[in-house]
Every structure is written in structure tokens, then in C-alpha cells.
Amino acid sequence: MTILVTGATGTVGRRIVGQLVGRGARVRALTRNPGKAAFPGEVEVACGDLTSLETLAPALEGVTALHLITFGGDDYAPLENGRELVELAAKAGVRRVSVLSSFDETSVEEALRAGDLGWTQLLCVEFMANAFDWVASIREEGVVRVFGNHPGAVVHEADIAAVAVAALTEEGHAGEAYVLTGPEALTPQERVRVIGAAIGRELGFEEQSEEEYRASMRAAGVGDDLIEFGVQLGANPPGAAAVVQPTVERVTGRPGRTFAQWAAQHAAAFRI
User: Fold this and answer.
1) What are the NAD(P)-binding domain coordinates in residue numbering (predicted)?
2) Against a cut of 0.90, is the pTM above it?
């Protein structure tokens, strides 16, 4: 069985590839830049772009399981070609699909829901890896500034990958919509404190006003649509964001990783 992983060089995709290799699976990694993929030698690297279906047919040859993301391009815009993409996968012989989703459905989920493929939806409110956004301010100033200090049950990217791998390699996951969280709900301020403990440095925390947040995002070159999304998320996060779910342990057989574990693994990135 060949498993194709799209978004293979991303935060979660790279973890999926690594865990599949660890299981001895035959893995094909889809990327727009094969020369920069840097995968182990046993991984077959395929050049392709989810927004350009003509590049996908060769990558899907012999594939029976597929991990999908729902966006494409450098602007992370939701894919609009979900129907054609799912039809192409079905024609190629794909039987199992895992799809990393947001809570806003795209054309990909719509097409999978209307089709006959066995698919598993992975829903995540926030990744632990989003804390990498704080690297510069922690290293340069020892402080983190955030708009909206609400608790979130952030999930480790390795746990998302583990659930995806289960869905791609095991029976019994088709038709499931798995909401994935970590084992605790922490505010950004609490996460900053955890990072400080991991690097042995006391860190400051400042809660931004909406005006300060907008100004900082504009200064960083962020587009208006993403700024509005960030404002809504910071002011009114979804209720599911703070609800701890047992899904990771139920699917994988072990507890989800804590943010303290994540911070310890990545402490070097935050040190001066």
C-alpha cells in the first residue's frame, strides 16, 4: 500500500510522513519544492500542487490511502477544487482518506461527504506549534504580546499525526470526525510561563488591545482578511477551543502530549 501525504513539508505533514516511515509504510510525500523536502531516503518525493490537478495524477498512481489538507498556495486560501480532487483520488484507487480540517468546511470536505471514499476528518482548534510565533519577541525582548488571553486545549502536532496515521493504516475510522486537543486547557499567559520554565528564563506577558493587535499585524505585513480572522478568534474564540477531548488517547491508546512536553522539546528555539 502506498500512502500519499499532501502538505508533507508542513508542521503536521512532516510528522505524518515520519510516523508512517516508522511503521514501515510505503510513503509518497507531495511537495511543490522537492529540492527542499529533506526527507529520509525511503520516502518517495513527488512534485505537485493541490491547486493544479494536472500535477496530481502522477502522484496518485498506485496510491490507496491519502492524507489531505484543505488549502493551497502561499496564501493558504481554501481549496476550491475539492470535487475534482476527490474524483481524481477515487479514480486512482484511493480507499482511505484523512483530512486535516478547520471548523469552517471547504470544498474538500463537501466533496468527501458527497462521495464514496472512506474518510476521517481531523478537527483541531489550535496547534501547540503556533507558539513558534512568539520566538522573536521571546528571544529579543523576553515578552509575549497577545490579543485575547482565553484558555485553549492546544494539541501537539505529533498527536495530530498519530491520529492521521491510525486513520490511514487501520480499520474502523472511516466516517469519524475527530476533534483533537491536548490534555489541558491553558491560556496564552500560562503557555508563556511554561516556555519560560523550559528555557530557565522569566518571561513577560502583555495582553494587547484590539487596536494594538491590528497595528502590529499591519506592521508585519499581514493581510486584512487574516487580521479580521485573528480579531474574531481573539475576541470570541469557539467554545470548543477550551474543551479537552479524550480523542487522542481513545484512538492511539496513550494520553496526549502536554504543552510542557512540547516546550521542553523545542526549548532551543526560544533561547537567546
Assistant:
1) 7-104
2) yes
